[in-house]
Each structure stands twice: as structure tokens, then as C-alpha cells.
Amino acid sequence: MKKYRLITVVLFISLIIVLLLFSVYLYNTALKEEYFYSKNIIVICIVLILIIAVLKLIISYKLSDQRKIDQKIKTIVENEKAKIIAEYDKQEIKEEKANETEVKVDEIVKKIIPNPQKLNTLKSYTEKVLSNIAKEIEIIQGLFYARIKKSNSFTVAGEYAFTGEKKPKDFKLGITLPGQAAKSKDILIIDKIPDNYFSVESGLGKSKPKSIVMVPIINKNTAIAVMELGTFKEINSAEQKVLKALSSKLGDKISKFIK
């Protein structure tokens, strides 16, 4: 673009020089022949032509530069506008997905939490909870510990597919992995399973879970129970949301059994 502009400038300057030389020639000719009237007319016309040419050159460049500036501004504005729209659409899609996820989480939680009126013992209720979780999250083994009344100790209240050689021991708040989850009141996920932690018996023989998840059950800001779940796969973010929802929503149900 700069190359073409340079050529245009050179051509205009050449034209002006030619016109100047031509005007000098005509002026000298008119002077020799003493055609004063013709001489003045010719000189005035040439000067006007030169002025017009120079003005045209200046205006064309000014307009050209202004057009480029306007075009650049327009391009910048359009690009920024496109970015804002894209970001808005992205945020809107993200919010829609989040809302859809929340709806799905609520639906799954409702399926998992059984009706206490149909299950009148802590053992039957907790084992039904574990069974329902297995259907939704595909756990292959589970233990449900309940807090012993007026103490910091927890004991097994329900089991799901547990085939350990020894009965799970009671634990105190802050002691062992389930105890740590109860103390922190937050979900604890263990991906590196300690050897002989527990095994799962299936048609393929005995296998070790890939992940163990400790889910404290909270009621009135106190851990009143802990679920210990084993699975052959890692717990994804959606499943973690389900377990976190259960952590708070099961508290009121379980508290009625351990008053």
C-alpha cells in the first residue's frame, strides 16, 4: 500500500513540474509576441490548474487516511463487540449447564434418600441408603458408621456388599480416615488405597477398589455419621456434588434414629 502511495506522489509531482515548465514556455512565447492579454489568461489558468491539482492531492490523502482510521476503529469496535457477545454466550451456556447439573443432582438425591416411615431401624435405613447410592454412583462396597450417643465414637450401623474378613472397628473423631472426615466435616476422597485396606469379592475374584470416599453426615454443624464408599472408578465432579448434597440432607433423617 505504501509503495502505491509513493508512486502516486511521484506522478503528481512530475505532473506539476511538467505543468510549470509548460507554463514558463507559454509565458515566454506570449512575452516575445507581446500578447499580454493571452499571456495573463494562460498563466492564470495554469496556476489554477496547479492549485486544484495540489488541493486534490492533499484532500485525497487526508480522506484516505481518515478512511483508514475510521476502518481501523470500526474493526476494533466490531472485534470487541464480538468478544463481548462470545463471552456472554459462553457464560450463558455455562449457567444453563450449571442449572441442569443442579436439577440432576436434586433428582438423584431424591432417589437415594428413602422414606424413613417405611424403614423403622437405623440398620435398615442406612443399608437402604447405601443400596440406592450403589444404583446411582456404582459403588461396589459401602459402610455406614453412626455416632454413638453422647460420645465422640462411631460404630458400624449398616453395610453394603462388605466381605471383609474382620468386622470394621469403631473409631473416634479425628482417628482413622473416617474419623478425619467426621472431624473436618468435609468429603474425603482417597485414590491411593493402602494395601489390605479392604477387598471386594466378585465373580472375577477379589479386587481392590480404585477409590474410597468418606462422606460425613452433618446435622446442626456436627458430624453424626460417616459413609465409607468403595468404587472401581474415580468419583467425578457431578457425583461429588451428589455426595455433598447427601452429606447435609441425610443429617436430619439419620438424627431421628440416634437420639
How many strands, what sense, and barrel or not for the largest sheet? 6 strands, antiparallel
Please bin the fraction of helical residues: 55-70%
Radius of gyration: 43 Å
Individual helix count? 5
Uncertain segments of ≥5 residues (pLDDT<50)?
none
Number of beta strands: 8
- Give, in spatial order, the strands making up the sheet with the most strands: 3-2-1-8-7-4
Strand content: 15-25%
Give the SSE string: HHHEEEHEEEEEH
CATH superfamily of the largest domain: GAF domain
Describe the fold and architecture.
The chain is an alpha+beta fold. The chain folds into two domains: 2-89; 115-255, GAF domain (Beta-Lactamase). 59% of the residues lie in helices and 17% in strands. The chain has five helices and eight strands; from the N terminus they run αααβββαβββββα. The chain has helices spanning 2-33, 36-112, 122-137, 176-184, 237-255, and strands spanning 141-147, 153-160, 171-172, 188-190, 200-202, 205-207, 211-219, 222-231. Strands 3-2-1-8-7-4 form a six-stranded antiparallel beta sheet. Strands 5-6 form a two-stranded antiparallel sheet. A hairpin with a 2-residue loop joins β7 and β8 (222-231). α2 crosses α5 (237-255). The longest helix is centred in the first third of the chain and has 77 residues, at 36-112. It is rod-shaped, with a radius of gyration of 43 Å. The model has no long low-confidence stretch (mean pLDDT 77).
In short:
By secondary structure, the protein is α+β, with helices and mostly antiparallel strands.
Structural descriptors:
8 strands, rod-shaped, six-stranded antiparallel β-sheet, Beta-Lactamase, two-stranded antiparallel sheet
